Amino acid sequence: MTALRLYNTLTRQKEELRPVREDIVRIYSCGPTVYRYVHIGNLRTFMLPDLLRRSLEYLGYRTEQVMNITDVGHLTDDTFDRGEDKMLVSARLEHKSPKEIAAYYTQAFMTDAALVNIRAADHNPRASQYIAQMIELIEKLIARGHAYEVGGTVYYDIASFPAYGRLSRNSTDKLLAGARGEVDPRKHHPGDFTLWKAAGEHRLQVWPSPWGPGFPGWHIECSAMSMSLLGETFDIHTGGADNVFPHHEAELAQSEGVTGHRVVNHWMHGGLLMLSGARMAKSAGNFFRVTELVDQGFDPLAFRYLALQAKYRTTLNFSTEGLAGADRALAMLRRRVGEWSTGSDDSSQGREFEDFEARFRAALADDLDLPAAMALVSEVTHSNLPAARRAELLRRWDRVLGLDLDRVAPDIELPAGAEALLEAREKARTAGDFETSDRLRNELAAMGMTVTDTPEGQRWKNAPHK
Ligand code: AMP
Ligand code: ZN
Question: What is the CATH number of domain 5-270?
Answer without folding.
Answer: 3.40.50.620
